[in-house]
Amino acid sequence: MPTWMLVLVVFIVAVVFGLLVGIAVARGRGAPRASAAEAATVAPVRKALPPPENPAALNNLALLYKKQGNLEAAEPLLKRALEIKEKNFDPGHPSLAAGLKNYASVLKGLGREEEAAAYERRATTLPPARRTAAE
Q: pLDDT tens digits for 52-78?
């Protein structure tokens, strides 16, 4: 059986299972619901945050916020990711240039054009990326 067919079958089974669970819950046969008193005693769910020293995770979360239009939430995450990259990466690292451009883009969106232009200039004046040993 081709892989695409197997994926399609698994998808169809998952959709059907989801529909059956939805019907069972609608008929009252699903999991029992907690009372108001029980619900009040349940600890609140903590938001998952990226590891503080992982610039890729910070950058990805920031770009998600940016895509959602939440530039105020994206700006500090991109700034922290950029600080980590500047501290740990070579000046010619491609991720550093991308971080500078991403941060400049968010600053522009926030109306901070002069500050954004400075970061864009820095991105274009970085040294070229290091060559690998294979070249």
A: 678 888 888 898 999 999 999 999 999
